[in-house]
Amino acid sequence: MLTGIHAAFIGGDARQLEVIKKFIELDATVTLIGFDNLESSFTGAVKRPLSFDVLHDVDALILPVVGSDEQGYVESIFCSKPIQLLESHFAALPSTCCIYTGIARSFLKKQAENYSIGLQELMNRDDVAIYNSVPTVEGALMMAIQNTDITIHSSASAVLGLGRVGLSLARTLAALGAHVRVGARNSADLARIFEMGLTPFPIEELSQQIDDVDIIFNTIPAQIITARIIANMKHSALIIDLASKPGGTDFRYAEKRGIKAILAPSLPGIVAPKTAGQIMANTLSRLVFEHTENRRGKK
Ligand code: NAP
Predict the structure, then answer these.
(1) For 48-61, how does the pLDDT look when each residue is reduced to its tens digit (9 = 90+)?
(2) Residue 270 CA: which ligand 1 atom is closest?
């Protein structure tokens, strides 16, 4: 339970509603900032404008997945007015407060450091990334189905990278009957790909592995599908780039060559906002509980 814990939510999207619901269920005191246009009324949560006095006793400040921009602006689909976090807002937070966000840009990191406030980035956590790989893979399959005229079954599919997304994706493609080859740079990953019954190849050999591939899924956040690689691909091939912006594909050259290449970010929030919200809700409620217990233990 989160009884006695004051959680303030600033902005967000549909995913945040699941987190708010969970915090209310767990008996936290919940303040909503930047939710003016939210239709559903959460019994037990109070809507307040962003002010210094609302922040002075906050235990957990919960920001959207994307955090804030470098000027402190926080996005909210539930509010038409801009919400800007200023340095003075961080100064108003108690030092026992912890800030939770999906990812933190340097503005947020700097403010947390300057005011000695804890900062937790959810998307950097292994557990969250692995849970999130489930809706990400489903979204990637959706993109592949929508953008090809062949089945995934029997297709020649390549996955680049065997991290948290790559592993889930390679396994799912194989379960659907695709012929899956996976490119990785480290020898343990190549061994794992072999153990899974898939075809491993060292990533530096990508250009030799690509000429017969129907669908290529990139999860490597670096320029990997270069013009030289694209030049070796079939015209009918499809590139689905899952890596964070700007992706790992030379999109300009792909377009020039007439090869369809799609950058597909934020799939969990698009294809399964409720599940993605529940993943965040479960992790956040646990983290806030642990943080508060640690703090109480130190008193
Ligand atoms: P991850 O676990 O860190 O996996 C990244 C993979 O890329 C690892 O296999 C890593 O190899 C490899 N890699 C990194 N840099 C490389 C390079 N320069 N050359 C060759 N291989 C390289 O990350 P993840 O959680 O799977 O996420 C992968 C990407 O997808 C990230 O950019 C993430 O932000 C993004 N993402 C997108 C969505 C979406 O909806 N589109 C959802 C979740 C995540 P090593 O292990 O050898 O370093």
Answers:
(1) 999 988 999 999 99
(2) 40
